[in-house]
């Protein structure tokens, strides 16, 4: 593929800009809905999504990732994978529909029956667009993908706010969950103009299914590790406790989710294209890894230092019990920034079996951590969750990079500059925050603190740590024009 670097950089700009917009939309919607709805409304929907989240991992059976990862793929293969995705979506829809009475019985909440049935339809919407999205990724049409992402989120947020203001309660959140897959699938079909053909027995998809199945199983194990605590909190502490924990957890995950969404798809596509070129592979990976960490670290520090003001400004006074949970979960922002990009490394090299083995070790450790904290409620769960992940991060990195072109030393060098910059910025912001204390109201205090933090951090990273040239080269890449390439199907 010609001009891969320029396409990656320009695609990265589009995705980052889109994620900045979606970040603003998500935070804005959180602020509005937190004031229109009650913690129990969020908790009720959270009870069901703890179950649907597991099934959601089966939505494409990893087949979209398999489509992107392969250097060559035929139209027969993509068409066959499309119909497999439709079958998987129908099975998931039926499974969740039949599970609705169990969900009601498990939580002792009759209102969850219809919530579960409505949320189940999302699997059908999603299944119809999986391979179309994969085609856009193969073509590296990241600007199109970014635009579709923004449109789907904006539409879902607008509808949910209207419903919440009209007094529909938790149904506003249900609608917010099922609208994006519907809107995205419609957009995918319109932008690709690809019509799937008939499934073919000669498509030779066994290796693709094996690859996708391993990724799916890995995702299921990881999801359980990171989300089973919500099931436990809902079961033993109730909808309100889960709602309070869930809002803190959601707010914590917005920075890493947005960045991973912005950089992850581009990085995986690019790394898959250069998997046979070790030098370029290493260079691309470390630049993406360093960028993700550099953008995430100040968010970790901001949460730790300004938790009380963030909760008060974004969610309002009735969510003050989320503050301590928010602070206890703060380390996970940086931990996920350190370990999530390693999945790009493993998947693009085809090392999905190693990724699965890592998940099988990680899951019981994390679950044990928050089970130990469960008797102490949401705060105990948050502490156990963060503590185990903090202890796990170094072994995780070492295991992932073993026998690859990336070394632990490479990772430590990539981490060192943002980390030193972050320590200095945190000390500066904390000192000034201590000085001005309670003399000003929460919003201006928060804005001032974040401005100081990010200003000092940027100055340290760009000038003292010598990273200015790195980011200038990225900006130069944004301005370069990239020739239009053939689409994925024309190249096979």
Summarize the structure.
The chain has 492 residues and is mainly α. The protein contains 18 helices and no strands.
Walk me through this protein's architecture.
The chain has about 500 residues and is mainly α. It has one domain. It is built from 18 helices and no strands. The chain has helices spanning about 5-35, 40-55, 65-70, 75-105, 110-125, 130-140, 140-165, 170-190, 205-275, 280-315, 320-330, 330-340, 340-350, 350-375, 375-400, 410-435, 440-465, 470-480. Helix 5 runs parallel beside helix 8, helix 9 crosses helix 14 and helix 10 packs antiparallel against helix 17 (about 440-465). Residues about 480-490 have low confidence and may be disordered.
Going by helix content, strand content and strand pairing, the class is mainly alpha
Report the total helices: 18
Low-pLDDT stretches are 481-492
**How much β-strand is present in the residues?**
under 5%
What is the 3D form? globular
Computed Rg: 22 Å
Structurally, the number of domains stands at 1
Mean pLDDT: 80
Q: Topology as H/E string?
A: HHHHHHHHHHHHHHHHHH
Q: N-to-C terminal Cα separation, in Å?
A: 13 Å
Largest sheet: none
Helix content: over 70%
Strand segment tally:
0
